[in-house]
Amino acid sequence: xxxxxxxSTLGTTSAIEDYLERIMELMDEKxxxxxxxxxxxxxxxxxxxxxxxxKLDAEGLIKYEKYRGLVLTPSGLSVAQTIARRHELLExxxxxxxxxxxxxxxxxxxMEHHISPETLEAIQRLTEYLHxxxxxxxxxxxxxxx
Length: 146
Ligand code: ZN
Description:
With 146 residues, this protein is mostly helical. The protein folds into two domains: 14-77, Orthogonal Bundle (Arc Repressor Mutant, subunit A); 84-140, Iron dependent repressor, metal binding and dimerisation domain (Diphtheria Toxin Repressor, domain 2). It has helices at 13-30, 35-42, 46-58, 74-96, 101-111, 117-132, 134-141; strands spanning 62-65, 69-72. A two-stranded antiparallel ribbon has the order 1-2. Strand 1 and strand 2 (69-72) form a beta hairpin. The protein is elongated, with a radius of gyration of 18 Å. The structure holds zinc ion.
């Protein structure tokens, strides 16, 4: 389990988490991530991405090779997997509540970086409860129209 990442010299934690999350997605798809692909996913310039990946490289979270692309180091992968698990849990929770998938995708991406471990654990317990009690979940999904 990765510790809490608070690399103040890299900008906000949420920006770093977005990078690591996108890099892991690209690695899953292609085996490596390129600056051009990360820039496209994050909707920012390649220059900004290059600047950030050099910092992530210096922090030991990724291995940056200028002409080949980049991969996560074991410690970068560990952080990225923690982020991915958190994303999946929140997605599962809101799905159980009957929230529209496109709304879930948007909201989880925004809120996932700001949720504390304590709150996440509470959501995990509630998610498990709803799984074990599908009749309760269905009541929440279909509130009585007034
Ligand atoms: Zn996410």
